[in-house]
Amino acid sequence: MELILIRHPQPDVASGVCYGSSDIPAAADALAAGYAALAPQLADVLARGYRLYSSPLQRCTALASLLGAFAPDARLMEMNFGTWELRSWPDIARAEVDAWAADLLGYRPGGGETVREVAGRVQSFLDALQHDAIVVCHAGTIRLMAAIAAGEPLQQAAAKPNHIKYCEILRLSWPAKPV
To answer: Which residue segment(s) compose the domain that 53 sits in?
Structure first.
């Protein structure tokens, strides 16, 4: 199966704010530009019957709804950062960030979710897929899906810096095809 992953448009939130699972809308201009760029690239696969899924957060559903009928799925949500949500990164105690860096898979940033828990949600979604799909979600969930598909250790995936741009497409084969 082919899995087409799309990161949501830029959210309407100040730069430098931790917004993980907070339901922040997409910036209107970013949504319009993202849809204009993506629609022609996805027209063929949508016409071939690829199913469309989305994180239920509005920065994802706004784009998904423009692309067509979609199924929201909570397993695709970004990591919940607990009390860190909607705080600027510089306002989060350095000791807390360092504790997370020391245990990327098991630490609960702000008392929220662990990376291991998010990976479990993502794995559950992938295991349930039975058809080609387009998924509108978040950089964190995309990085985890790519790591799972590649057989990459979660620790390695969690340590990688985010280089996934807003409205960027990543195509994967699922289940992973042997090399």
So the answer is: 2-173
